[in-house]
Design a protein that fits this description.
The chain is mainly α and 40 residues long. It is built from four helices and no strands.
Length: 40
Amino acid sequence: MDKANFVAEQRRPAHTEKRFGSRTINVTPAPRPTQTSSIT
């Protein structure tokens, strides 16, 4: 569930901050360069 939502939110980084709230801090700066590249 987290992965599915993360992928969908990845397209809308602006919404990720509001949807995930404090969790966005952990999702945005992902330790994986592949995910970070997608967000950027």
